[in-house]
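Let us practice reading a record.
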Amino acid sequence: MAYNHGIGVSIDKVKAFSYYKKAAELGHARAQHNLAFAYYNGDGCAIDKVSAFTWYKRAADQGDIESIFNTGCAYSSRKGVAIDKFSAFKYYKKAAETGHADAQTKVGLYFMTGIGVNVDKVKGVKWFRKAAESGNAEASCNLALSLKHGNGVAIDLIESFKWF
């Protein structure tokens, strides 16, 4: 992290990448996440979405929450792996259950639209509310619209207004 952020040393993305890779290969989950991020963005290396996905998944398999979310993102958007909406939902839900607000928003969207899961608008609204209560702006807007139009919940214009 020191070389990546210039903490006590000059920023050197190539050195940071090298250290992340060594630690990642030894099984350190956060280093695996950081290595994946480097591959994804080309920090200290060439951009390589396939390697980014591989390392995000390894970190996710060890319980790194941000990597679980990013693995879901990869599955939903063909970033280093074929699109698989069912797997995307699985990873989003796993991250959402830990309180990850962006993942909660995704789970809400998937339930509302039936992507990777059967449509269940009541559950969609439940996940929007959880994320909105954590301050997620997209979820707040989605919750407000659901309340305004009675989509998965009874129409409540006063409550809707609070979330806009």
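A brief commentary: The domain at 84-164 is CATH 1.25.40.10 (Serine Threonine Protein Phosphatase 5, Tetratricopeptide repeat).
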